[in-house]
Amino acid sequence: MLNRLLFQKIDNSPLIIFRIFFGLLISLECYGAILTGWIRRTLVEPEFTFSFIGFDWLQPLPGDGMYIYFFVMGTLGILITLGYRYRWSMIAFTIMWTGVYLMQKSSYNNHYYLLILISFLMCFFPASKSHSLDARLKPEIKTDSMYAYVKWIFVLQLLIVYTYAALAKCYADWLDHSFIEILMRSKKSYPVIGESLQHPFVIQSIRIFGIAFDLLIIPALLWRKTRIFAFICAIFFHLFNSIVFQIGIFPYLALAFTVFFFDAETIRKLFFPGKVAYSLKDIRIPNRSTWMLTGGIVYFTIQVLLPIRHHFFKDNVLWTEEGHRLSWRMMLRSRSGNISFKVVNKRSGKSTTISVEDYVTRKQKRMLATHPDFIWQFAQRLKKEYASKGEDVAVYANALVSVNGRPMRRLIDPNTDLAAEEWSHLEHHDWILPSKLHYKRVKNSD
Known about the structure:
Layout: H1 2-7, E1 9-11, H2 13-35, H3 38-44, H4 65-82, H5 86-103, H6 110-122, H7 133-137, E2 145-147, H8 148-169, H9 172-175, H10 178-185, H11 200-222, H12 224-245, H13 250-256, H14 264-271, H15 289-305, H16 317-320, E3 335-345, E4 351-354, H17 362-368, H18 372-387, E5 393-403, E6 409-410
Antiparallel strand pairs: 1-2, 3-4, 3-5, 5-6
């Protein structure tokens, strides 16, 4: 049964067309980052970036370096689309995209993380064995089949993403639609649709449809009887997200994934009518099947465990942010706040109030004022700055934060010397004050 599920040979048309879509989309993402000013705002204008903790050494290239960097990634996307030097192009893009992801958190997005995972998986898939320059230059590699496990890896990865996204929405601020009201209020100025997005019916529909879609879309796409209806719902859902939330290529990447849910013959006829159909459905167990199964089990075990790690931390992830990233917790909270830092010379006792505006951009300040890991990293940076001048200092933060429209509350213990604290990815930090998220929400607050 397992051998048939994983190692049966099937038509590779879905993988081939996905490669083409994928390459085009990542090209648009990279070139778009240049044209829209995203690189300038996120990687060029800041004096430094808040990288993932442990990757502080990973900083943007100086001068026009990041423009060139993204241009190269966009070009790699074109090579992937064409299927030219596919394996090397895919590996190079994966490494470069992962580097961008790790070097900055100010524009953190779960979709960027998903792009890393899909790029990583695509490095191992035979996506250039047909309708590619590689297959034209080396006809001996051409084939019209692939192993069935390629399809099921995509399906399982998407099932994990959507399921955790649905479960994450099952919390008070989504279920009573108060967060959705805040989310839609920020879209009120949109032309044509802005006012409609404030209507109670729309907000209630988003509350219900958001959970139902995430929870049911994968089973509905898998079942032949509901597949077309599910696909229509997917088109509506992702186009709505694209228009309202403007989240780059992800809605279109999500639609591209649907090729793995339709019959390969349907995909072949639609996109490659001249391609030879593969219908043998023979089972061929690879020599390295044990290693492949082991690798798959390890990979998906990590994917299942990472999103639930916040349950093992003290307090509420909505407040602490501990375990929020890499867990498919998408569009679940709105944070606002203000912050100041005090640096105290341990020898003289002299204190200095730091103006964060002298160090960070407006975009970075929004994250610095509301996220504990940003606050800790900034304190460490101040410590190093003063140490370079021969001063041993303590760094204290005064941060007031509102989560989902609640009244401002103190986030960080103002008496804790953050410069002396260590960061742990696996433990709660006691200098993050208790959340008390049960208190009354202020409805008119953003």
